[in-house]
Amino acid sequence: MPLRLATWNVHGCVGRDGKYHPERGLEVLHRLDADVIALQELLWDSREALHLLDRFAEALGYSAIAGPTMLRGDGHYGNALLHRLPLLDTRLIDLSIGRHEPRGAIDALLQTGSAPLRVMSTHLGLRPRERRRQMRRLLRILDGETDRLTVLMGNLNEWFLWGRPLRWLHHWFGYTPSPPTFPARLPLFALDRIWVHPRSRLVRVAAVRGGAALASDHLPVAADVAV
Asked: Do residues 221 and 205 lie in contact, with contact meaning Cβ atoms separated by under 8 Å?
């Protein structure tokens, strides 16, 4: 059976109605039923007893990797990775540029049973120049990984179809379908993407509704990957 991977910007678990409601996000994650899920804009309490990421992982039967980009006294904010595959190695990559909002990526090596799977999840900046620098760094890190099954996914914030980051990604990963995900109620822009190398391993990719349009301003994207 192929692996299912997914990425979702949860918008701090604040839905279209403006209410903070983590349980709605938990229901969407449960329906995704993915082996690996990348989350962006996760806001969790700094006190261990109320750690939202741990709550999600425990309720769904996943292990969790936290990749906060902002550490604050009232809580942490940033990226996370939920997975139910054995973890071989992981590291956090700082993609922050100047005085812009801090950004980062999670680089994880997971065991699929047949061979390692490298998953890199990220949330890029809002400005084109910022995204170009961040993408160049990620691709430099991936350079040389031509033989390993590799996935790059997350909220790339790239809405310019002719933008250089997308052209670089098409060159490295091959052309990949990109369903629109934002805004969730009537999606027009493909901000959230999943890229797979080798491209031939990508079976299908699609945006997922299933209550997500109420739980966040982004739709999740799910992909089936042959291993």
From this structure: yes
Contact call for residues 185 and 212 (beta carbons, < 8 A): no
Average pLDDT over residues 135-157: 91
Bridge partners, 64 (sequence order): 82
Residues pairing with 191 in the sheet: none
CB 55 within 8 A of CB 29: no
Tell me which residue of 160, 168, 154 sits closest to 67, measured CA to CA: 154
Is residue 30 within 8 A of residue 60, CB to CB? The reply is yes
CATH H-level superfamily of 3-225 = Endonuclease/exonuclease/phosphatase (3.60.10.10)
Does the pTM of the predicted model rise above 0.90? yes
Instruction: Tell the residue number behind the tokens 């061979």, with chain if given.
Output: 115
Pairing outcome for strands 36-44 and 3-9: parallel
The helix/strand/coil state of 139 is helix
Boundaries of every domain in the chain: 3-225
